[in-house]
Amino acid sequence: MDVDAHTLVRAQRGDRHALGVVLARFAGPLHAFLRRAWPGGDSEELAQAVLARLVEVLPRFDPRGPATLSTWVFTVAHRWLIDERRRRHLTVAPLSEGLDVADASPGPDAVVERRQLRESLEAAIARLPEAQRRVFVLAHVHHQPLEAIAEVEAVPVGTVKSRLFRARAALALDLGPSLDVAPNGARHAAR
Amino acid sequence: MPTVEQLERLARYRADALEPAERAAVEAELASDATLRAGLARLEALDAAADALPTELDERHVTALVNGALGSRTRPVRAPWLVSAAALVALCAVLAWAASRAPADARHAVAVTGPVVVNGRTLVAGESVTGAGALASGDGSAVLLLDSASWLVPSNVELTLASPVRLERGAVVVRGVAELEAGRAHVAVDGLAVVAMEPSPGLSRVTGQLERVSAEDLMKREWMRLGGVGAAMAALGSAVTVVVMSGSASTTVPGEAPVVVQAGEAWRPGAAPTKLAALAANPAVTAGIDPLAEPLPTSSKAATAYAGYSREQLVALAESLRDEKERLLTERAQLKKALADAKEPGHAARNYYRFDPEELMASAKKGELRLRGPQLGERPAKLSAALRASTGLSDAEAQAVEDVFNGSTRRAKEQLVSLYREIGGDARSAETLSAQSLLSELRDKALPGQFEAAVRQLANERAGLVPPMDPAAQSAILRALRIYVNEDTRVLDELDRLLGPGRAEAFLNDGELPKSDNTFGVGPPEPGH
C-alpha cells in the first residue's frame, strides 16, 4: 500500500511529520533490500543514508508520472546502491550471521522447517554474484518491475531476465536437497 | 542433480520464456529424465520459498532509522562525475541577429562564421534561411532564432530543426524559453542553459569554437569551453548533459519522474541534479564572454581528453568499458564457435582429437584457449549403443573409456573444490556446486585482468611460445583453467594407450559421440604488454 496523496504532498513540501510517515512506510523494505543486496555492509548505515537521500529527492517525484511511489523509491535506492558501491569499492562478504526476521507465528515443526529453509535461502542469496543478487532481490523479493530495474542497471530487460534465470538456477543448485520434499511432506534438513 | 545450465533452461521453461520448439524439446526430456523433473521441482520449491521471504526486517529499527534520516541530513553522495575545482566553465551568451522579423512558426538560421549546412544548402557568413530540416555546423557556427529563444550553435553540432528541435550531437547554448530533445530526454529551458549530446560512448564532448557577434565586431573569435565538467559528463555513457546557468530547465526521460534543474546545477539521465561549485561561483556566467587563455583541443580523442576527469569518473568509465569488452569478447567467442561448427562444403570437418601445432599457434595469437572432450560435461559418461557400434568398441573397451572420462570429471571437480576452498570459498557450498559453477566462482573472484592473463598464458604454453609459469606465481583462476588443460591432455593420453592413436582419433571424431567444446577468448594482448 502506498502513502495517501495528501500526506505525500505535505512531505514533498517539507512537513516533518508527513516525511516521517513516508519514510516509515519504506524504511523496513529498504532496510531489507539493502541488507540482502549488500551482505557484509552496515545495513543500518546504508538504510539511513538512503532514507536521507529520499528526503532530498522526494520533491521530484511526480504522482502523475508512470511510476508508483513504491517503484520510484526502490529505483532511487537501487541507483544509490550502485553508485555507492562504485564509490566505496567494497567487496562482498557472505552473510554469516542470522537475520532479524519479522516472524510472529509460532507453530509446529513445519514452521521451523520453513524458517530453516528461509535462512538457508538468505545465505544462498548472499553468495550470488552481485549483479544477479541485486536483480533477484529487487524482482523476486520486492516485486519491482523489470523495466525499472533494467533502467537503473542500464541493460535491456532481456538481460535482467537472463540474470534472474541464472540466479534461480544457481540458488536451486546451491540449496540442493534443502528444496526437496519427502513423500511424507517433510523437507530435507537445511544445510 | 541437473547442472546449472540445465536448471537455467528449466527456469526459462517454467517462466514460459522458451521458443515453442525448445519448449517441446524440454518437455520431451522431462518425460524421460527423472533428474530434470527433480530439478524442476526444486525450482518450484525455490520460487515458493523466495515468495515467502519477508520484505521487511525487524520493525524495532524503523523508528530509529526514520529519526536518524530526518534529524541529521547526510551530505549528498557525490555523483561520480563531479570534477575537481580546477575545471572551469565559461559561457558566451551574447547573441545577435540580422534577419528580418520572421513568421512565428518559421526557423531562422543565421550563419555567423560559415560554412553551415542547412537542409543540404551551405550558408556562408551573413546568410540566413527559414524553414525546418537538418543543420550541421561543421567547422562553422551559427545562431538560431526560434520564437522566444536564441540558440548558439558552435562547431561540430548536428540539429534536426523540427518541433521540438532535436539535438543529434554536439552542445548548444539556449537562452530564453525553448524545448528540445536529446537522446531520450526532453528538455524545456526557461533561462540560460547548455545542452550537450554525445551519442558515442567513451568519447568526450568538448565544444568547438563559437563566434561572438556584435554590431561593432562580427568576426571576433572567442572560445567556449565546457571544460572538464561538460566533457566528463557527456563522456560517461549517459550521452546527454544539461547545465543550467540561470533560470531553470525541466528534463523528462521516459519511465522517470520529471526533474527540475536549477541555476548552478548539472544533470544527466539517471541521476539527480548536482550543484557545480565552480559554476555557481563564477560571476561571468551571466555577464557574457569569459575568454580563456588557451584554445580548445582539436581532437576529442586526444590523450588530454581525460585531463579534467576525477578519479571516480575515470574508474566508472573504465568499469563500463571493461564490461563492454567482456561482453564483446564473449560474443566473439560464441561467434567463432558457431562458425567453426558450421559445416561448409570443401572444408575439413572439425577435429576433436589433438590440436595441430598450427591450431595452437593460431589460438595463442588470438588469445584463445580451447578445451574439448566429453570430460568437461557434468553427467556421468555413458557410451550409447549406437556409439559403440559405430566405433567398434567392445564392452570392455567401452567401460574402460567411460572410466577414463568419469575419472577425469571426478579429478577436475576434486581439484576445483580444493582450489575454491583454498582461496576462501564457502566450504559447505563447494561440494554441491558443479565444476562449471566452481569455475565461474573462481573467475568472479579473480582480480581485474587475471582471467585474461591466465587464458593467454595457457594458450602460449600450449603453443610452445612460453615455458610453464612458476606455480608460486600462478593466480587461482590460472590454476583452475590449468586443471582443465591438464585433464584435456591426460584423457587423450589415456585413450591413446587404451585404443591406440588411430582408434582414439576416430572415436573422438565419431558423429555419435556428444561433443563438448569450450573456448575462452580474450583477444591478443594490448601492444606493449
Proportion of beta-strand residues of chain B: 15-25%
Oligomer: heterodimer
Q: Compute the gyration radius of chain A: what is it?
A: 18 Å
User: Structural class of the helix and strand makeup of chain A?
Assistant: mainly alpha
Could you list the spans of chain B in which at least 5 consecutive residues all have pLDDT below 50? 72-105, 204-238, 278-304, 344-348
Would you identify the regions of chain A where 5 or more consecutive residues have pLDDT less than 50? 90-107, 183-191
Global mean pLDDT of chain A: 79
Helix content of chain B: 25-40%
Q: Helices and strands of chain B: which structural class?
A: alpha+beta
Instruction: Let me know the largest β-sheet of chain A.
Output: none
Count of DSSP strands of chain B: 18
Largest sheet data of chain B:
14 strands, antiparallel
Shape of chain B: elongated
Q: Please give the radius of gyration of chain B in angstroms.
A: 32 Å
N-to-C CA distance of chain A: 36 Å
Termini distance of chain B?
43 Å
What is the count of DSSP helices of chain B, taking H or I runs of 4+ residues? Answer: 15
How is this structure best described in words?
The complex is a heterodimer of chains A (191) and B (529). With 191 residues, chain A is mainly α. Chain A contains 8 helices and no strands. The longest helix of chain A has 22 residues, at 16-37. Residues 90-107 and 183-191 of chain A have low confidence and may be disordered. Chain B is α+β, with helices and mostly antiparallel strands and 529 residues long. Chain B contains 15 helices and 18 strands. Chain B has helices spanning 4-14, 20-32, 34-51, 62-71, 227-235, 277-280, 311-341, 357-366, 385-391, 395-422, 427-430, 435-445, 450-462, 476-499, 501-509, and strands at 108-111, 116-118, 121-123, 128-130, 133-136, 142-146, 149-153, 158-161, 165-182, 185-197, 210-211, 221-222, 240-252, 259-262, 265-267, 274-275, 368-372, 517-521. In chain B, the strands form 3 sheets. In chain B, strands 1, 2, 3, 4, 5, 6, 7, 8, 9, 10, 13, 14, 15 and 16 form a 14-stranded antiparallel sheet that branches. At the A-B interface, α2, α3, α4, α5 and α6 of A face α1, α3, α4 and α7 of B.
